Amino acid sequence: MIVDCALYVKGQTRHARTDITAALREARAGGGFVWIGLFEPTAAEFAEISEDFTLPTLAVDDAVRAHQRPKLERYGDVTFAVVKPGRYVDHEEVVEISELAIFLGEHFVITVRHGVSDVPAAVRAELNTSPALLAHGPAAVLYRALDLAVDGYLDVVEAIGIDIDEIEEQVFGDAGGEHSERIYKLKSEVLEFRRAVVPLAVPLQRLVAGEVPWVGAAAQPYFRDVHDHLLRAADAIEAYDHLLTNVLAANLAQVTVEQSRVTVRQNEDMRKISSWAAIALVPTAIAGIYGMNFEYMPELSMRYGYFVVIAVIAAICVGLHALFRRNDWL
Amino acid sequence: MIVDCALYVKGQTRHARTDITAALREARAGGGFVWIGLFEPTAAEFAEISEDFTLPTLAVDDAVRAHQRPKLERYGDVTFAVVKPGRYVDHEEVVEISELAIFLGEHFVITVRHGVSDVPAAVRAELNTSPALLAHGPAAVLYRALDLAVDGYLDVVEAIGIDIDEIEEQVFGDAGGEHSERIYKLKSEVLEFRRAVVPLAVPLQRLVAGEVPWVGAAAQPYFRDVHDHLLRAADAIEAYDHLLTNVLAANLAQVTVEQSRVTVRQNEDMRKISSWAAIALVPTAIAGIYGMNFEYMPELSMRYGYFVVIAVIAAICVGLHALFRRNDWL
Amino acid sequence: MIVDCALYVKGQTRHARTDITAALREARAGGGFVWIGLFEPTAAEFAEISEDFTLPTLAVDDAVRAHQRPKLERYGDVTFAVVKPGRYVDHEEVVEISELAIFLGEHFVITVRHGVSDVPAAVRAELNTSPALLAHGPAAVLYRALDLAVDGYLDVVEAIGIDIDEIEEQVFGDAGGEHSERIYKLKSEVLEFRRAVVPLAVPLQRLVAGEVPWVGAAAQPYFRDVHDHLLRAADAIEAYDHLLTNVLAANLAQVTVEQSRVTVRQNEDMRKISSWAAIALVPTAIAGIYGMNFEYMPELSMRYGYFVVIAVIAAICVGLHALFRRNDWL
Amino acid sequence: MIVDCALYVKGQTRHARTDITAALREARAGGGFVWIGLFEPTAAEFAEISEDFTLPTLAVDDAVRAHQRPKLERYGDVTFAVVKPGRYVDHEEVVEISELAIFLGEHFVITVRHGVSDVPAAVRAELNTSPALLAHGPAAVLYRALDLAVDGYLDVVEAIGIDIDEIEEQVFGDAGGEHSERIYKLKSEVLEFRRAVVPLAVPLQRLVAGEVPWVGAAAQPYFRDVHDHLLRAADAIEAYDHLLTNVLAANLAQVTVEQSRVTVRQNEDMRKISSWAAIALVPTAIAGIYGMNFEYMPELSMRYGYFVVIAVIAAICVGLHALFRRNDWL
Amino acid sequence: MIVDCALYVKGQTRHARTDITAALREARAGGGFVWIGLFEPTAAEFAEISEDFTLPTLAVDDAVRAHQRPKLERYGDVTFAVVKPGRYVDHEEVVEISELAIFLGEHFVITVRHGVSDVPAAVRAELNTSPALLAHGPAAVLYRALDLAVDGYLDVVEAIGIDIDEIEEQVFGDAGGEHSERIYKLKSEVLEFRRAVVPLAVPLQRLVAGEVPWVGAAAQPYFRDVHDHLLRAADAIEAYDHLLTNVLAANLAQVTVEQSRVTVRQNEDMRKISSWAAIALVPTAIAGIYGMNFEYMPELSMRYGYFVVIAVIAAICVGLHALFRRNDWL
């Protein structure tokens, strides 16, 4: 699906949805360029454009099928780049990765977007308001797209940082509990995010080194800046990866201790209950003996036998209680 | 065992099972090439072919014995490549790795397959239907075989991804349970798969760099594309490796907590039962005392002695019950 | 906010808060340099200076927004460096990272500080007292800032080392206990600190290699010395990272054992109590039998029946006690 | 100790134990070479040979003292190589590493063996039966020794793989149990084995690159083949290392669950026993009350008092039993 | 503190404590060199020497302050090296790292030792007895110091290996127990030791490559030999690091199982005791019923009531016992 088609000539923007070949001719004539934006095109939809601009078949395939690595490839005069902008859906703790394929020729830019990303729209808006940017030709689109994508990475990095802080508070906070699911899922997002971010370093290095046609030496500091920001994002991702591994281990330690504390308290309760029960068995046993019906039991006829027995029982119970106390059982 | 022998001359395919040397001569004359496909040949079976095409001995050895690393070696004019296609047997969660050795000369291709793989058959089918492909000569076979093998890797990667999702659901789902065996076995498959995938990067880089004879500059973008897909597979394998390690740790945490929860509940039950038992001991003990047969027990002859004792017992039991409740034991 | 503006000409220091352009002109004329120190300037505050010195826009952006990686970039004649001094707040076990952006021209140095750091003030003090240093021009500022920052890293490294020693004493000391929170938090500080320290190696290597303008060959040994100290800090950070991972595991082992010891002792108590209770049940049961009111119970009328029963009870109890002792239950 | 001394001239093998210098002279004259094989020589035993062949002192030291890393060093015309053949002692699950130092000159090979290895004997046997091999001169000995050693590594790798399969069956099999000792010990063997295998890659790369004198370009494919096999062994070792770490973790998970299952079942037993005991306390307590000897207890003289009480006891017991059943305690 | 000052001219050793400048002059004149050995000098003590020999200030700083990384730096004609000899204090399981800074000029060597190390004394002794060594000039001191230090590393490595064997015996031996403290502490020593050993590889590579003045090509094989031994030590350290991590995990597994075994046995005891107690409750309960004082209890007046009840009690007890046996509770 063609989302937009614009013609930029002499610092002017003209929307030219109708005739792509005419627009391309005009761009060539006027030293400007055409930008065609597509969204998840089918192979058929893309075929005509691909022919008009004589795009390299392999790159067209990649752009249509998506699920590519971030990369930058030269096919003669045409440069093909793939960047994967990301955004953080905070309430789900999910990094949503979209994909943006960019064909760069002397007089055209073709962008193919897969998934949700506001990068192309933002670049378009900038172009429309900045003639200075337009002066750099198609490379400006590449630069802005990469810059915005990498800035987006830094936003994601910050958002993940906040979630890690939250996890730390949960793990080490008073509530305790087991958080391995949340930690694992965030880690799995970080790993997927890394696959979008880290491989972009090589294309950026090549842009900084000036190996890409239609990207002049003047543009190199800009790409170096983007590269630098990318490294920052990559550093943070690496650190988060480590942190999450460690917080998982720490959580396991915490949970183990927490649970053990519960068990120990329960065991103490049991010991206390059992100790009391053991004390209660004494009067039962002794009284049982004097409840026997033997005809000849001399104690029974003693005047103070009863009182003596009661006293003995009480003494034993008190003694046991003191003993258990000393053993820390009560 | 020779599976197939085909002669490709001037865009035409001719099956030529009978006379290999004649076919080779014809290929040389007509600027075409012969493709001989073998399946797990014995050294003896391979010896004759090896002689006819003057294949390098070391490479022949490797091709017959199999269990090679993915590689690409030059022996004078002959290029020897080993690629290990993989496929995922989903119901066993096993990656089945086969092996395909390819000898590439100016006028011949010899493929030696070990294990089950549909890559050679698929390449043959493509050649038969695409004269454009045939125009590239033997290199086309190498390209298609590598491309299909790497595409197969991406399929395996996707299938493993689905299994990891399943494992995540099991581990973090309501059913809980211990899944270390499944996780470990999948991880062990991933490790083996990696050994088939990752070393292929070096041969592909060499093909991209144009260091291989009979592979023209025009073919380089194609190999670059394959290389790129390989890197994608390798990235995913790396990520899966990490994920599985983490899910194993998370599972251990989950299981620990789950089991602890069971133990805690069991302990609570025991505490409750013991508490009731302790309460039941009170009437037994007191009643035991008044069941003694002493002749002189003043309480026995009291008019309301019995009722007083019953009341005392009841009071103590109720009191204990309240106390245990307050301690959260009941 | 401009913190300070100084003019260094012919080994002399002059404070020149009023007119920056005049100071710059004078510096150029006299072969000296101007140093302007800023603290967390807004984009607006920085705009004028940036114009006066024709600073590169991208670098100005980075300097204003902060949160950069340590780096060193050339923009024509201007060198832009970012260094992140750190200090250890011992009572919180936190590494506080500040940020210092440095613009280096032939006749000026502009430093932009974010966060708390005494590095710029210390450099200024050194400049004011050392004419020899001044002779090196703006590069002296860069050298001193890097040297002091790296020396600060070594202080932090030492302080962390002391905290790790403390943790080791806690973990392996008699008090025992679970310290995963402290270990994790220190580890997370180490990881953040690493992100400030390690990337500085590349800028320093470039300074040592003499790739930076206005940094003469004479300055290279100085930067090599700083580089060397940086590597020392990086080595230590790496080692601490490993140590903390290991001490976390060791702590988990210790805690597991400690808790288990508590449980085992509790279980022993329970076994002891239960054993005594079991013994106490014997007289109760036997006495209960002779407390039955059957009319015909021959033992009851025996002359020594009572004494025999008492003896039997005592014998059983003593026997049980001995048995339990032998089983190690008492 | 000199194990063997052979003279190979013009494709002929002659044993020449007696006079080494004469043999060397003859080898030089006839364009052949002398091979002297030693077994754990003392410094004194080796001194004479070392002098005759003017071997480099440092290398001689290394060869006598053994415990070297696999390496390849040039000392002028003499090449010194160390390779560490390994073999797997299956019943002990131990990798036995021996050491083979090889001095290579234009007209001589000196091999120094430490420990048990059949590599030198096998090389000798091959030389005696293959004149083609002899034609390559001393380099043939180096090639065959490296090839056989690396083939031996692949055998060890396979044997370790079988043991890992066994461990997996033990860990995940029905018998369960704790296998950390076996896993750890095998891992420790793998680590030691790696130290023998992996460093050999550098010497082999140098041989492939043709940096070694007396090793012609014709020999390079052979060394490349060995190098390739070495990489295969190294890949497998890496994978085994990972697998063993993971199986250790999985085993811990399994054991934890297994033990917990035992504890849970024991706790269930205890709950059951306690529940029955609690039920048994009811008749004791109630009967105790009616066993009291108060003179005035109205129920005692009721006609059906006894039966009512029995019925009440039975009702309570049945009720408790039903309650416990519902709580899943019985 | 100056420990020693020696003058080596024409293969002769002369002690020259008195006048350093005179000694240096003589060394220059005679083509020999002066060796000054210092032990933990203060900055003031070192200042004079530093001036006499015009040593580079930065290096002097490093030598005085110590705590450097192993390194090798060129300052014009002067080479500055730092090596950190280590020795293993077996009864404390501690690696004691000392530090040796070496200044190398055409006619002098200055060594600065921090901590306890017998390396300088050993080098001196060798020099005094070996004129051949003296002939190499100051480089001989560097070579011998590095060689002895690295040999010391190998001794430490061996001693650590023995301690690891001991730990393995403890962990997997019959005594069992928790050894995380010992394992952790040894690991922490290994990590510190690594920081002394591994960075030395770079200086040695530079010496092998001949980048260091006053170190001739003839010396390169010697340094290569040292380098090789260093790599051997580094390999072993790496392996030990892995082993200790694994033995910690294995120990945790062992301890978990061991403790669990104790708990299981305790639980079995409790079950046995409780089972017996439950049996004992039967006669108590039944006898209690027939001990009630109801006037109308038909069984009491039966002729064989008593015996029937005794028989019933016995039957129930025997039955319960059999049941518990079958349940494996007794």
From TrEMBL, chains A, B, C, D, E:
Topology term for the membrane: Multi-pass membrane protein
Predominant localisation class: membrane
GO annotation, cellular component aspect: plasma membrane
Keyword field contains Protein transport: no
Gene3D superfamilies reported for this sequence: CorA soluble domain-like, Magnesium transport protein CorA, transmembrane region
Alphabetical list of Pfam families matching this protein: CorA
Swiss-Prot/TrEMBL catalytic activity: Mg(2+)(in) = Mg(2+)(out)
Transmembrane intervals: 273-292, 304-324
Subcellular location: Cell membrane
Domain of life per record: Bacteria
GO molecular function: cobalt ion binding; cobalt ion transmembrane transporter activity; magnesium ion binding; magnesium ion transmembrane transporter activity
Keywords in alphabetical order: Cell membrane, Ion transport, Magnesium, Membrane, Transmembrane, Transmembrane helix, Transport
Family: Belongs to the CorA metal ion transporter (MIT) (TC 1.A.35) family.
Function: Mediates influx of magnesium ions. Alternates between open and closed states. Activated by low cytoplasmic Mg(2+) levels. Inactive when cytoplasmic Mg(2+) levels are high.
PANTHER family, per the entry: CORA FAMILY METAL ION TRANSPORTER (EUROFUNG)
Protein name: Magnesium and cobalt transport protein CorA
Organism listed in the record: Pengzhenrongella frigida
Lineage, opening ranks: Bacteria, Bacillati, Actinomycetota, Actinomycetes, Micrococcales
